[in-house]
Amino acid sequence: MMFKQVGLYVILLTSACESAKILGVFPIAMPSRYILGNALLRGLAEAGHDVTMVSPFTEKDPPKNGSWRDIVLTGITNEHQDYIRKFTKFQWLGQYASLSAMITPITASFISEPLLNHTNMQKLMKSGEKFDIVIVCQFLTEATKALSNLFDAHLIVFSSFRMNFMLNHLVGNPSLPSYEPELLSSFPPGMSFSQRVLNTLYKFVMNSLLHLFTYPINDRAVKKYFPSPFNQVDLNDALYNVSLILHNYHVSISSPLPHVPCIIDIGGIHIRPWKLPDDLQEFLDNAKEGVIYMSLGSNVNSKDLPLKSRTAILNTFSKLKLKVLWKWEDDVMPGQPPNVKIGKWLPQQDVLAHPNIKLFITQGGLLSIIETVYYGVPIIAIPFLADQPLNAYTAQKEGYGIVLLLKDLSEGKLSSLIEEILSNTKYTEEAKRRSTIMKDRQISPLDNAVYWVEYVIRHKGAKHLRVQYLDLAWYQYYLLDVFAFILIVILVACILLKISARCVRYILNKFIRNRFTKEKDE
Ligand SMILES: *[C@@H]1O[C@H](CO)[C@@H](O)[C@H](O)[C@H]1NC(C)=O
Ligand SMILES: *[C@@H]1O[C@H](CO)[C@@H](O)[C@H](O)[C@H]1NC(C)=O
Ligand SMILES: *[C@@H]1O[C@H](CO)[C@@H](O)[C@H](O)[C@H]1NC(C)=O
Fold first, then answer.
1. CA nearest 288: which of 323, 317, 319, 324?
2. From the CA of 211, how far away is ligand 3's center (Å)?
3. Domain 278-439 architecture
4. Is pLDDT of 16 > 50?
5. Which runs of E-coded beta strand occur in 355-452?
6. What's residue 392's pLDDT?
7. Of 76-80, 280-284, 330-334, where does mean pLDDT reach its minimum?
8. What is the DSSP string of 221-279?
9. Atom of ligand 1 at shortest range from CA of 48
């Protein structure tokens, strides 16, 4: 009896230890970021952890097991969305200029400052509460990396984008501009010479902007908004303190890139079964001739497309034998053809999972790309901003999609692309092949993420995963000191050779001349 009780006590104790306190900071008011962060944190709560999520949104159906707390950043949604729309309008500046603007002084603390200054966040920061793990969503949120110091927690970075110049150097991940297109470029894998030149320059400029503006500005934000004495921390120390990167990517999407051991691919973490509403189920079931699904995601509204593009799309759709399901953010669509069904919000995953979907017309956001590869549907990508051009050109290069730029969108062009994807089976076959790769995993991406978060707790920050690079100065990492040394050795050797050659020549000359003159004399 006694023994049993002790046993029970031990079990209770260990399970109490296993429940960690986890803080997730997902301050960006973009639904796609929230969906990802929420999927991860829900998974952690369902595994029995005590989870706090900081975000602009409220969870309406918190998980039953574990524990869940929302810290809602009231009022910053509109601010962020205005900002994102502004960048969509800057398209004419070109991909580079508009995106370089994102990390310049104007915007370097656009996400961090309203977060750190928010009343609810300030309350948490001054509460003295501690956590085991802080997970921060990466994107103009450098200052939040100092939260790990404030809450005495291990730092995990969640990257909703592919690995990029903002992250690689934090963990010493090798990334060469010779074969890795930078995040905000529109180069597909296998770059041409001129693309490699641009990619190299671009990476250099972005890196410089990051170090010249983004880091100092975020460091000032830490000094300004963190309670004392935690405002004394040097942001540089906080930045390189990352224990783990949870990377929203998977090898089925594009050719692989090198990963140091603390980068864990969890692309597909948000995939879970949904249920189609009855009317959609019926619409899709009855469309034996096939359905085209069109959605430009949550940042670009179809209803705000230029009239010319909208008319071209509508004219194309009205002449199709197929049906069309279109995410359209209004109650009515002027000139809606009979074969087109609209919905303000559509359960995208479930729609893509339906066997009658033949083609997805998308803006090429990473979540849409992951979903389309998961369900094996080929795409026509009309990219707008951020990583969308890169994703779109990658899909084209890898053979499961075609890019259509908004400026090239016309009725003739769109209908010929639709015809190409529907009649040439190679696109669908490639999408389906990649789908089998995406699904062929030892363990689900969510379980994998939970495992690695717990791994970091078990191994107290898992510092054994860090590569040596982090102990080197930048010139040591790029071997500049070694090259300089070798150069000097070669130079010295040349000089010595030259001197000794002169000596030899001198001696020989003297000797030979002497002999010659002697021979002549004889
Ligand atoms: C938590 O709840 C979910 C659904 O309610 C269940 O599937 C899961 O097994 C539970 N996990 C634990 C650790 O109890
Ligand atoms: C910070 O928040 C306070 C009120 O909560 C506000 O008065 C102040 O202007 C804010 N500062 C900045 C820089 O946004
Ligand atoms: C680095 O992380 C550890 C936990 O792994 C934390 O205790 C420490 O305060 C962090 N240091 C900085 C400078 O952020």
1. 323
2. 21
3. 3-Layer(aba) Sandwich (3.40)
4. no
5. 357-362, 379-381, 401-403
6. 94
7. 76-80
8. HHHHHSPTTGGGS-HHHHHTTEEEEEE---TTTS------TTEEE-TTTT-------HH
9. 13
Q: Relative to the CA of 243, which ligand 3 atom is closest?
A: 5
Please state the atom number of ligand 3 nearest to the C-alpha of residue 461.
5
Q: Among 117, 118, 120, 218, which is best to mutate for testing ligand 2, by the most ligand atoms less than 8 A from CB?
A: 117
The residue contributing the CA closest to ligand 1 atom 3 is: 46
For the Cβ of 436 lying below 6 angstroms from any atom of ligand 2, the answer is no
CA 155 from centre of chain: 17
Which of these, 299, 310, 301, 295, lies nearest to 406 by C-alpha position?
A: 310
Q: Identify which has the larger pLDDT, 305 or 14.
A: 305
Per-residue pLDDT band for 2 (boundaries 50, 70, 90) equals very low
Per-range mean pLDDT, top range of 10-14, 81-85, 107-111, 140-144: 140-144
CA–centroid distance, residue 114 to ligand 2 (Å):
8
**Coil, helix or strand for 205?**
helix
Q: Is the peptide bond before 229 cis (omega within 30 degrees of 0)?
A: yes
State whether the Cα torsion 383-258-265-427 is positive or negative: positive
Q: How far apart are CA 292 and CA 322, in angstroms?
A: 7
Characterize the bridge pairing of strands 401-403 and 379-381.
parallel
If DSSP codes are grouped into helix, strand and coil, which group holds residue 324?
strand
User: Which tokens hold the place of 289?
Assistant: 């001739």
* Ligand 1 pocket mutation pick from 49, 64, 65, 446 by most atoms within 8 angstroms of CB: 65
Token digits of residue 68: 């869940």
The encoded tokens of residue 114 equal 């309203």
Separation between Cα atoms, residue 257 and residue 474, nearest integer Å: 21
For residue 139, name the pLDDT band (cuts at 50, 70, 90).
confident
CA nearest ligand 1 atom 5, residue: 64
Ligand lying nearest the CA atom of residue 63: 1
Identity at 378, one-letter amino acid code: P
> 2-271+443-474, superfamily in CATH?
Glycogen Phosphorylase B; (3.40.50.2000)
Task: Supply the pTM of this predicted model.
Answer: 0.87
Q: In which element (H, E) is residue 326 found? A: strand 323-327
**Which one-letter amino acid corresponds to residue 292?**
I
The pLDDT of residue 384 is 84
Residue whose tokens read 């973490």: 269
Q: Quick one: DSSP state of residue 295?
A: E
